[in-house]
Amino acid sequence: MLSQTKLQLFKFASLHILPKPLHLSTSSRTTKISCISLLKKCKSMQHLKQIQTQILITGLHQSGDILNKLMVCCTDPSFGNLHYAERIFNYIDIPGLFIYNLMIKAFTKNGSFRKAVLLFRQLREEGLSPDNFTYPFVFKAIGCLGEVREGEKVYGFVVKSGLEFDTYVCNSLMDMYAEVGKVENLKQVFEEMPERDVVSWNILISGFVKCRRYEDAVDGFRLMQRQSSLMPDEATVVSTLSACTALKILDLGKEIHRYVSEKLGFTIKIGNALVDMYCKCGHLSIARQIFYDMPIKTVICSTSMVSGYVNCGQLDEARELFERSPVRDIVLWTAMINGYVQFNRFDEAVALFREMQIKSVCPDRFTLVALLTGCAQSGTLEQGQWIHGYIDENKITIDTVVGTALIEMYAKCGFIEKSLEIFNGLQEKDTASWTSIICGLAMNGKTSKALELFSEMEQTGIKPDDITFIGVLSACSHGGLVEEGRNHFTSMTKVYRINPKLEHYGCLIDLLGRAGQLDEAEELIEKIPNVNNEVIIPLYGALLSACRTHGNVEMGERVAKRLVGIDSGDSSVHSLLANIYASADRWEDVTKVRRKMKKLGVKKVPGCSLVDVNGIVHEFLAGNASHQK
């Protein structure tokens, strides 16, 4: 209720600031009933303030029922005003649990998570006992704040109040653990629940998806099918389809699709999830059918379809759908731009970006990263500098994502000093930014600096990944640092537990080949576990190139025979072997190789050059004079 001092202030505000009161009956009982009836029908703050003034005039402000209903209206998300509700709350001397619950819920839904948690503390200090309507929104606020210890403290209060097995409270506790990435705690709460509703299963599955535990999400769905009589709903289906998409489990996706068709029924969210799954699993025809059958096509499903066309290399179909989409958000624009970049149609990517600017669509960092990636691939420094200027002019923050893209662009365009400047200017550096500058330095022949930064990276406690080691081994290769290369390769496998990939073996073999240690390189290839043609061909190709460099004809013949036996259509193998024979003045053998190439129909792939002229990239093929310029 309101104290005398606060009541005077409250009345003053009501009479001098609020609008004129509504006319109601003078009977106290009738006025109370009328006020509650009006509050139930209230649809605007203007109307609410009129009712509030009448409540004060008639002295009904002391009624708990009316005060509760007034706060319900003030916190209503459709027309209420949370700031106004907070002012009224501050006038109340001893708010009841109902009003505390209303305010905690309103603060949480409004994103004022800290206020919600502070209000919970105040509630307990006032001697009130939280109930199963209090805890769910407190856990939600704590989860969004990421404060695990605070959550565990609140869970202690839950246990003391005897609500640890309340389904509503347990569901909210699971959701908090999912939000902060505590998967094992999430599972434990679920397993200890005596009763589970469909929301419990949904939080378990979506929690696994949120934490990228996709196999566990699928297992959770299967467990629900076996152990529960509950029917999966929209949320169950959408979360499980997300896991199917990530794992490319098409069979389960199709099973869920049948369930939706036969029992549950389609919704916009389910349609979006199915389109996305079929697109990412490479079944574009089914995705297209679902898409065109959807009565309402959202920008989300349009983006999925555009991305699906892009992934299948159907850029013209993607652009056609992009143009037909009634709503185009930044994600859809970026998907189309990224598609052009992915398939080296950079001029069209830039043209689409300019069209985006004309239509006053502001790019986000992912749009700019896509464009910078295109500049890096094509070596168009001028375009990259223009995009960098756009970032600076529009005061776009150069975070680790944008910074890494800029570092890579300048490095691949040969402007490594600028890459270093950007790297040194980053406020925060993650594995990707360290890797980008190390690889850039290696690419530009700055071996010492690359290895120096790698050492610094290790000292700062940032863990290198497999791509980092490609840069490190490449730097060793360019610098001829055989012993350092061996040590880093060993460190990668033994210390960081990273399984070597084709690129790592390639760098080490290139390093050994450059140093003339061909026997060790050949021995290394033969020791590679679970070797397949996809790995063996480029590695033996690198060794064959080293044989040519060092004039090792015997090994060159041996390696070439192995390669020809695996893939006789690769022109580079035949050409390298012919060059090895030529360097040894074995011209008869050169002629035999050329004849064999002709007999097998093997043609040498012509070299090409990319030239940037006034921002447009032109491609010139060796021996081809057909270019218009």
Strand order of the largest sheet: 1-2
Q: How many angstroms does the end-to-end distance come to? A: 86 Å
Low-confidence stretches: 20-30
Helical percentage:
over 70%
Overall mean pLDDT: 84
> Count of DSSP helices?
35
What spatial form do the alpha-carbon principal axes imply? elongated
Largest sheet: 2 strands, antiparallel
How would you characterize the overall build of this protein?
- The protein has 629 residues and is an all-alpha fold.
- Helix content is 71%, strand content 2%.
- It is built from 35 helices and two strands.
- It has helices spanning 4-17, 28-41, 45-57, 64-74, 82-91, 97-110, 113-125, 135-145, 148-160, 167-179, 183-192, 198-210, 214-227, 234-247, 250-264, 268-280, 284-293, 299-311, 315-324, 330-342, 346-358, 365-378, 381-393, 400-412, 416-425, 431-443, 447-459, 466-479, 482-494, 502-514, 518-526, 533-550, 553-566, 571-583, 587-600, and strands spanning 608-613, 616-621.
- A two-stranded antiparallel sheet has the order 1-2.
- Helix 10 packs antiparallel against helix 11 (183-192), helix 18 (299-311) runs antiparallel to helix 19 (315-324) and helix 28 runs antiparallel to helix 29 (482-494).
- The chain is elongated.
- The model is unreliable at 20-30 (pLDDT under 50).
Short description:
This protein is mostly helical and 629 residues long. The chain has 35 helices and two strands.
Topology:
Elements: H1 4-17, H2 28-41, H3 45-57, H4 64-74, H5 82-91, H6 97-110, H7 113-125, H8 135-145, H9 148-160, H10 167-179, H11 183-192, H12 198-210, H13 214-227, H14 234-247, H15 250-264, H16 268-280, H17 284-293, H18 299-311, H19 315-324, H20 330-342, H21 346-358, H22 365-378, H23 381-393, H24 400-412, H25 416-425, H26 431-443, H27 447-459, H28 466-479, H29 482-494, H30 502-514, H31 518-526, H32 533-550, H33 553-566, H34 571-583, H35 587-600, E1 608-613, E2 616-621
Antiparallel strand pairs: 1-2
Helix pairs in contact: 2-3, 2-4, 3-4, 5-6, 6-7, 6-8, 7-8, 8-9, 8-10, 9-10, 10-11, 10-12, 11-12, 12-13, 12-14, 13-14, 14-15, 14-16, 15-16, 16-17, 16-18, 17-18, 18-19, 18-20, 19-20, 20-21, 20-22, 22-23, 22-24, 24-25, 24-26, 25-26, 26-27, 26-28, 27-28, 28-29, 28-30, 29-30, 30-31, 30-32, ...
